[in-house]
Amino acid sequence: MVSVKQLGLAAAILSICGLGHAERNITSDTYFYGQSEPVYPSPSGKGTGDWAEAYEKAAAMVAKMTLEEKNNLTYGVATTENGCSGILPSIPRLGFTGMCLQDAGNGVRNTDFVNSYPSGIHVGASWNKSLAHDRGWYMGGEFRKKGVQVALGPVVGPLGRTVTGISNDPYLDGALGAATVQGVQGQGVITSVKHFIANEQELYRNPTINSRNESVESISSNIDDKTMHELYLWPFQDALKAGSGNVMCSYNRVNNSHACQNSKTLNGLLKTELGFNGFVVTDWDAQHSGVAAAQAGLDMAMPDGQSFWGDNFTDAIANGSVPESRLTDMATRIIAAWYKMGQDESSYPAPGVGMPYNVSEPHTIVNSLTRDAKPTLYDGAVEGHVLVKNTKNALPLKSPKLISVFGYDAKAPDEYMPDGKSLLYNPWGIGYSPAIFQMGDLFSMTVINEPYYFQVAFNGTLSVGGGSGANSGPYLSAPLDALQQRAYEDNTVVMWDTTNNPSFMGLMEASDACLVFINAFATEGLDRAGAYDDYSDELVNKVAKTCSNTIVVIHNAGTRLVDQFAENPNVTAIVFAHLPGQDSGRALVSLLYGDENFSGKLPYTVAKSQSDYYSFFHTGAVTPYGLFPQSDFTEGVYTDYRYFDLHDITPRYEFGFGLSYTTFCFSDLHVSPVKHGISAYPTGAIEQGGAVDLWDTVATVTATLRNTGDKAGAEVAQVYVGIPGRPVKQLRGFDKVQIPAGGSAEVSFPLTRRDLSSWDVVAQKWQLQNGEYKIYVGSSSRELPLMDTLTIVTSS
Ligand code: BGC
């Protein structure tokens, strides 16, 4: 593979100047790696499939617009009328009411009277598609009531921004991301699937000025074409298939061309290959050019576009630099999405109606809370908890006489208000003060005041991530509060010391259980410094030294290693509690006491050591071209369990793993044969999501699942496929089923053409190969008791 270090400068120039090869001679992936192919002109939206009616209406409205009116649709304006992150003005004369664009990750951000839902990673850990859908539906209802037309999420991307992302696996990410899109858009709110694409690190996320006053570009994610399709584009494809009306392009560069002016990713992948009918919006301030961005497929600049578009854009059209048809297409895509979701209906609340400009000042309350959302909030919180260790019958707790509680993460944060200030100006999110921090040996003490290295939220329990993913609900059920309530009911004594240096140890030995709460923080704008911290690990071991029944609960905003205490025999149970939202404590206590059963599964691999990961974070190296930071994705498709399989590395807890209070048994695997002579490549028409026959079911896998224990519980049946010549196995199906004690259920998984295909770089198509495909079914990526073979013989 040609090193990007050799290509970097030339490629950067290529992207700036917009020059490129007119003809392609693609023989391998090196054609794409590190240099973004030019793809012009920008394809006009076609209004395929169920977009046809919206396109007809949009074309009729846009035809009545003046040049200026069309232009005004392409960028946001500043206003003090509401507190929306992005505001698109109305065109009253034509009945267009304008748009409010607002974050997103856990619910409506920076306002009051909204719920705080489980985060993306928590949804990932639940492996529950219908729950993901319902969470989207209720969340969408709140966006709608608040007068938000575009909800700035979900985040889909294999590693993505860990605070709001769903999973490291594209299949899981795509399936749950698509369910979220359907839920939110079911309420008529447009989803903004983000961040397109390969936005895998925060370091150098935006261009900066260095100490020598030189401009340093944002990071370039350098990805080959196969990896782009099979890993990074995959979940976006699912979200588009699910109908997303908007895509947000990202801060980073992709193969050395800015993601918001990258003709290959926007014109090529998104608008041609995936037939996107909706519009592309920038991440905030991610626009870097006027003419080039428009030609490359950008449709809307946020939060404003004055510096590159605005009046400059009408000039560019007048002087022929950009054809007016491109502006017409931009406007049509935006208005079509608005019509498609029914936002023209008078019942749709006016933009920003529930989004006060300053939520700390007196304002009109728009209450979007409903009782109906409560079961989904609670179930969502329950199901994202993953039990990974449970020895000596530690759990469930059985009416303990005395429990001791430790750790900074047990109690409610000192501050929990939707005051806007903490949300907007405090990168730590609500109430997470970076002030008190102590780091172990991962980084030296000298960096204590350097915010880039913080990895613990000391100020209280972590229920959401920071930055644009943060929001606050009507209340926060902190673990310690919920434990106290349960103690009241059970006549249990609770003692606690949540200080950073617990001295109360007296009754530890007499405790039936000692609960230690720690966390792993993450926020937009900062990469996590590491996958564990010594401070928290020492706290666990300190308690475990005296308490023989130490139960560790970790609120982790990303993968968290546990090897400094996992084998300590006094650490009897470990729970990855992720980011449960406002029902955190209540859900946890139900699980700890066995009122609910654990059913969450890891949406990532937990390694024994950080060095076991190929690259834990894509914190791009500064290459010899220091002004053009590069992050080479040389691991290709071998991320997470694919990498562990390839190199035969034993993880601490594998992808897909999670314990329950009951046991399950898999049997009776059946794989339906694929008819001989199936075409190797899809031949269907392109609609939103790509060639329509990519979604045809090619084979069906069925198996029987039995609950062999004495408690009711839910198991996630997982199907992995070994495609010839590909990673040993890849997740290609999952289903979460609730089964009573002693009961059984049949699980059935349709495998689509895409599920069984690999990306053919030369043909530029998904290809079904001739050969034998291994089919595995089981309860995790390494616990796969059922195996069969599927033979495919294509017509070519
Ligand atoms: C974030 C986006 C967010 C936007 C608007 C950006 O900094 O990267 O995820 O949607 O701000 O708040």
Automatic annotation (TrEMBL):
Keywords: Carbohydrate metabolism, Cellulose degradation, Glycoprotein, Glycosidase, Hydrolase, Polysaccharide degradation, Secreted, Signal. GO terms for biological process: cellulose catabolic process. InterPro entries: Cellulose_deg_GH3 (IPR050288), Fn3-like (IPR026891), GH (IPR017853), Glyco_hydro_3_C (IPR002772), Glyco_hydro_3_C_sf (IPR036881), Glyco_hydro_3_N (IPR001764), Glyco_hydro_3_N_sf (IPR036962), Ig-like_fold (IPR013783). Pathway: Glycan metabolism; cellulose degradation. Its EC number is 3.2.1.21. Residues 1-22 form the signal peptide. It holds the Pfam family Glyco_hydro_3. It is an enzyme of class 3 (hydrolase). The keyword Secreted applies. It is found in: Secreted. The keyword Hydrolase applies. It catalyses: Hydrolysis of terminal, non-reducing beta-D-glucosyl residues with release of beta-D-glucose. Residues 715-781 form the Fibronectin type III-like domain. Belongs to the glycosyl hydrolase 3 family. PANTHER family: BETA-GLUCOSIDASE, BETA-GLUCOSIDASE M-RELATED. Beta-glucosidases are one of a number of cellulolytic enzymes involved in the degradation of cellulosic biomass. Catalyzes the last step releasing glucose from the inhibitory cellobiose. This is Probable beta-glucosidase M. It comes from Penicillium cinerascens. The lineage of its organism: Eukaryota, Fungi, Dikarya, Ascomycota, Pezizomycotina.
